Every structure is written in structure tokens, then in C-alpha cells.
Automatic annotation (TrEMBL):
Top-level lineage group: Eukaryota
Region (Disordered): 1-25
Organism: Salix purpurea (Purple osier willow)
One of the GO biological process terms: Golgi to plasma membrane transport
Protein name: FIDIPIDINE
Residue ranges, compositional bias (Basic and acidic residues): 1-15
Domain (CCDC93 coiled-coil) ranges: 16-291
Cited Pfam families: CCDC93_CC
Length: 318
């Protein structure tokens, strides 16, 4: 009798051990999948951080280029105004030199002493050379300043380059949005797998509890009581989890119903707009037909009036 009881016990526990091994294998698979998802999540976060750094760097480069461009443009305007002032000064000096040349020509034509004339010419020549050298130095300094400003202006990005930067920023923004969508998807998958893992762990705990307490439950009354209490606790936990899931499902269903109503309202509005557009097109076509008929009738009436007037004129002449 005792041997038959042991055989029945082995028959009951053997399937439970197989289920326990299957549950453990499932838990190990889920743990591996969870580690893989954690690694993918870390990679996605690193990519997002790199993209943010690139955006910040390119934005800083653009802002710094604009800040550099403003003082350079101001310098160009100042140089242009100075150039106009120098040009006016050069015109005045040229006029003075032309007047001096005319004066010398008059002196030569009047027969002035050659020695006095040579001294005057030497003085004028030395003064002219000094002014010429000073003007050359000033011109060289101005040219260096202008070339420096031109080089700085060449370093500032042009309109086409700014357009390329803007296109690059747009592409980068689209790429970031796509990465953000993928990250949200990965997080949702991660949370789902985490809930599945919790359920599998609870199932494994239940099977372990049944396996450990089954012998006592069969042999003693206290063991049966403990097993029943344990099962009731597990059932309560499962019911709470089920209620939580049902509440979330109801919330999602409410959101879905609201979106469905909005979609139906939008589709009704779209159909109404289509009907109004069709009626408007029909009225436009009708208006065109009426205008064509009116123009034909006016032409006919005009021709008939002209014929009548012509006939009356012929009658009067005769």
C-alpha cells in the first residue's frame, strides 16, 4: 500500500518537475533577451548623446560666424568711408599740384632766373617725394587692412553654405526624431518583457512552492493548510495583477474610442468639404455656360439691331 502511494506521488511530481525546468529555461531566455535590450538601449542613448553634441557644436559654429561677420561688415563700411575721404584729399592735392605746375610754366614763360627756378623745382620735388612716400606708406597700411578684412570675410560661410547647414540640421533633426521613436519603442518592449519576466518569476515561485509543499500537503493536515494559504495568496496577487491590467486596458480603450470619434468627425468634415467643393465647381461650370449663352445672345441682338438700322437707312435713302 505504501509503495503504491509513493508511485502516485512520483507520477504527480514528475510533470511538475518538467514544467519547473521549462519555466527555468524560459526565465533564462528572458534574462538573455533583457540583457540584449539593455545593451541596445545603451547604444541608442550613446547615439542620441553624440547627435546632441553635434547639434550644439554646429549651432555654436554658426552663431560664432554671425558674430564675427557683423564687426567685419562694420569695418568694411568704415574703410569705404575712409577711402572716400582719402580720395577727396588726393583730389585736393592733385589740384594744388596742377596749380603749382601752371605757376611754374608761367614763370618759365616769363623768363625767370634759372637758379631760382631750379631751387623752386628742387623744393617742390622734395616735398612731392615726401608726400608721395607718405601716401605710399598710408596706402600700403590701408591695403593690408583691406586684405585682412577680406580674408576674414572669406572665412565666414556664404549663403549657399548656410543653406547647406540648414539642410544638414533638418536631416539631423529628422534622424533624431527617428531615433527617439525607436528608443520609445525599445522602452515599451523592455517594459513588456520586464512584466513578462515578473510573471514568469511568479509562476516559477508558484511551481517551487507547490513542489516543496506538496509532500507535506499530502501527508499532514497543516501542510494542506499551508498549501491552500499559499495558493490563495498567489491567486490574490494574480487577481490584483489582472485588475491592474484590465484597468490599463480600459484606459487604452477609452483613448482609442476618443481617437476613433475624432477620426470620424474629421472624416465627416472632409466629406462635407468635398461636397462643398463639388457644388462650387458645378456652380462655376454653370456660370461659365450662362456667360457663354449671354455673350451669344448679345451678339445676336447686336447683329439684328445693326441689320434693322441698315434696312431703315436704305429705306430713307430710297
Amino acid at each position: 500500500m505504501q509503495q503504491q502511494h509513493d508511485d502516485d506521488t512520483n507520477k504527480v511530481t514528475r510533470p511538475e518537475e518538467e514544467e519547473l525546468q521549462s519555466a527555468r529555461a524560459s526565465v533564462e531566455t528572458l534574462a538573455a533577451n533583457l540583457d540584449n535590450l539593455n545593451q541596445r538601449k545603451a547604444d541608442v542613448l550613446n547615439n542620441l548623446e553624440q547627435l546632441r553634441e553635434r547639434i550644439n557644436k554646429e549651432g555654436d559654429v554658426t552663431n560664432s560666424g554671425v558674430q564675427k561677420l557683423l564687426p567685419l561688415l562694420k569695418s568694411v563700411k568704415d574703410l569705404e568711408s575712409e577711402e572716400s575721404v582719402l580720395q577727396s584729399d588726393y583730389d585736393v592735392k592733385r589740384t594744388e599740384l596742377e596749380a603749382e605746375v601752371c605757376n611754374l610754366e608761367e614763370k618759365i614763360s616769363a623768363g625767370m632766373d634759372s637758379e631760382v627756378l631750379c631751387k623752386d623745382l628742387d623744393c617742390l620735388l622734395s616735398e612731392s617725394l615726401e608726400r608721395l612716400n607718405a601716401a605710399k606708406k598710408e596706402l600700403a597700411a590701408r591695403l593690408r587692412a583691406v586684405m585682412s578684412v577680406k580674408r576674414k570675410l572669406g572665412e565666414v560661410p556664404t549663403q549657399s553654405e548656410l543653406i547647406q547647414y540648414e539642410c544638414g540640421f533638418s536631416d539631423l533633426n529628422a534622424h533624431i526624431q527617428e531615433k527617439h521613436r525607436q528608443t520609445r519603442k525599445y522602452y515599451a518592449t523592455y517594459n513588456t518583457l520586464l512584466e513578462i519576466k515578473e510573471l514568469m518569476l511568479k509562476e516559477t515561485s508558484l511551481l517551487n512552492s507547490i513542489s516543496s509543499q506538496f509532500q507535506d500537503a499530502i501527508t499532514t493536515t497543516d501542510g494542506r493548510t499551508k498549501l491552500i494559504d499559499s495558493m490563495e495568496g498567489i491567486v490574490k496577487g494574480s487577481q490584483q495583477k489582472l485588475q491592474k491590467i484590465e484597468a490599463g486596458l480600459q484606459q487604452e480603450q477609452k483613448g482609442f474610442d476618443a481617437l476613433k470619434k475624432r477620426y470620424a468627425a474629421v472624416m465627416a468634415e472632409q466629406r462635407h468639404c468635398y461636397s462643398l467643393l463639388k457644388a462650387f465647381q458645378e456652380e462655376c461650370a454653370k456660370n461659365e455656360r450662362l456667360r457663354g449663352q449671354t455673350s451669344v445672345e448679345n451678339a445676336t441682338a447686336t447683329s439684328s439691331i445693326a441689320e434693322t438700322f441698315k434696312h431703315q437707312c436704305i429705306t430713307i435713302d430710297s
